[in-house]
Amino acid sequence: MGILNVTPDSFSDGGRHADPARALEAAHAMVADGADVVDVGGESTRPGSSPVSPAVEQARVVPVIRALAAAGLRVSVDTRNAATMRAALDAGAAIVNDVSGLTFDPAAAALVAVRRCPVVLMHMRGTPATMSSLAVYDDVAEEVRAELAIVLDRALAAGIAPEAIALDPGIGFAKHAAHSIALLRDLAKLATLGRPLLIGVSRKAFVGQLSGVAEPAARRGGSLAAGLFAVLRGASILRVHDVAETVHALRVWHNLCA
């Protein structure tokens, strides 16, 4: 899953793809490099970020999604707002990727159930503005598993088919670096929920801490290592900025392990 943020303020690539023409060019390059899905987001959810209105979010993502879908690309929309989900699906998006696990907007779960689209349910406490203060755990993997189980049960109760659901433990969301590291080491606990795991480690703070690289865009090598580790621990989908390098690393790794 290639990351395409059409925002001015995302933590690593904010502003790079705010122009629709540049966004389309970047998305086509990701697919050419081997991305199966392009994940389009119009609201930054980095720690401390402020929300934007669904109208602003839709103005950013819908034209890009419509053009990508018309070109035959498989697109997901990264949003926690039901109105944006609806507009994105109408424009041709195939997947909803919600950092709140369909808990932020009361209308989201019913919408996804009616539209019968795949959905990624992510673990996060609070909101981007408050989540860092909520990063308190005794056993992060066990607590994330338990909280994701609740999110999963709510989605199923809303009528979403189990085979349509993937789970994301939310690396870096309401988790300090030590929590993210411990969670990756103990991903097997999340596998007990019986759904595919999507993992997003690309360029995140814990990668910088482990590698000693302060600039997010320069964390490519560490992100590749963390992504391969996540696959080794059971990840089915990697959400990444550096598609070509990740695809090359996975090809070599899989061939060596064959």
How many whole angstroms does the radius of gyration measure?
Answer: 17 Å
Strand count, sense and closure of the main sheet?
Answer: 6 strands, parallel
**CATH class type:** Alpha Beta
CATH superfamily: Dihydropteroate synthase-like
Q: Unreliable runs, pLDDT <50, ≥5 residues?
A: none
Output mean pLDDT. 93
Helix content: 40-55%
* Domains, number: 1
Terminus-to-terminus distance:
23 Å
C-alpha geometry: globular
CATH third-level topology: TIM Barrel
Discrete helix count: 10
SSE ordering: EHEHEHEHEHEHHEHHEH
Report the β-strand fraction as a percent range: 5-15%
* Total beta-strand segments: 8
Which architecture does the CATH hierarchy give at level 2? Alpha-Beta Barrel
Across the major sheet, the strand order is 1-2-3-4-5-6
Structural class: alpha/beta
Description:
The protein has 258 residues and is α/β, with parallel strands linked by helices. The protein has a single domain, classed as Alpha-Beta Barrel (TIM Barrel), CATH 3.20.20.20. 45% of the residues lie in helices and 11% in strands. Helix 1 links the parallel strand 1 and strand 2. The radius of gyration is 17 Å and the shape is globular. The protein starts with a strand and ends with a helix.
